[in-house]
Amino acid sequence: MASFDPASVECPAAHLIGGRIVRAEGVIPLRRPSDGRDFAQCPIADASTVDAAVSAARVALAESDWGGIRPRERTRALHRWADLIEVEAENLARLEAVASTRPISELLAGDLPVTVEQIRFFAEFADKEGGAVAPTAEDSLGLITSEPHGVVGAITPWNFPLSMAAWKIAPALAAGNAVVLKPSELTPFATLRMAELSVKAGLPPGLVAVVLGDGPTTGAALVAHPDVAKVSFTGSTAAGAAIMANIARSGVKPMTLELGGKSPQVVFADADIDLAAASIAGSVLANAGQACVAGTRLVVEAPVADVLVEKIIARLRSIRPGPTWDAATAFAPIISERQLGRVDGIVRAALAAGAEALVGGQRLDRDGSFYAPTVLAGVEASSPAVTDEIFGPVLTVQTFVDEDEALRLADHPSYGLAAGLFTRDLSRALRVTRRLHAGTVWVNRYGRSRDHILPTGGFKGSGIGKDLGREAYQANRRSKSVLISFQ
Q: Fewer CB near the terminus (10 Å): N or C of the chain?
């Protein structure tokens, strides 16, 4: 029922500035990852276009007094926006499916409902998070107040465009800010339409702006703009470092960076092996491994390694690849031929160095950029297959004999985004959880739930600050200390 003809979807080259769709010349040719065909072009917003969006956001913020109105009014406006997204869910899903790696059925069943939930979740923070009275001397009153930053500059990745946009826009708006967002140039169209719906919902025109473009031109201009008071970014660690450097060259401002990962899944011999196999295979298959939290390093206790890997492989063999506009598709393409080539290059290098592909190890023989789910055994710890964020459906296998070795293998020198742990021993679970260097640890499961109160963010090179949860709302406010002496 949800299947559609990709040719029926119009993807306009445009920006959203001042509450209006502004048509622009398409510059970046885009190809559908499902079949490799050209389907649209993305414009590149230059510094003057970014400045127009930021200026319009500042005007909307000032004229509407968005940050100063009764907080419940912000809550109601965000709920109206969520209502419209629900109404237009199928159109938004088509806009995203045609351009991205997200199958239409998964968008309608997961991504869109989650996006709406996240907006509603943050809407409710607007009138529930305030300041505090600080303990001071009896002849004074100490207050800790908070206020919005102003204009927040946000940049989102291509792998989950709509939900990532909600991560950025919803807490910023609930906290009283304006937002100028740059989606990935590979998957911009659904985000553009979703932002346009905010105006229809009654949010002040200009309060939410979307500028399309690439990182070196559009992204760089946005994060360095002097009127952007805070930056929020999700993407690779290398891109995050470049953003930090760009901000440092132009000044100092707070930032939230949710960056790359190479997450381990540690399985002890006492674990529920069927549960572990389902969770691990699901992590590899989800969006074809194109997720920053993908658990692509299996670290398993030696006695159960063979049986666990066999069960994982059985699940990986059951994939249903297909175009993202087909409702029957349950395995996604790789975002581009360039990225598929990178995945294949890392796998081939590992095989040449002595690793063994227990399953997969090559692209799928079909139209589009599809790569077979792959399990690599016998990999060296220094292999890029183990150390690098591949962003593809590739799982490496390493075995251990005791808890200390498990933790040594699980630790990564650069990343610390997430980790999975499978054991029936509660004491071990609590002990190992404390010793894992990761911003999120899942025990006897792997992957985010719809408990939006749980923040997400990494250690080490996996990021700074948190998305989701109370922490994301608070990151969009700045605190002010006030001390009043009684006369």
A: C
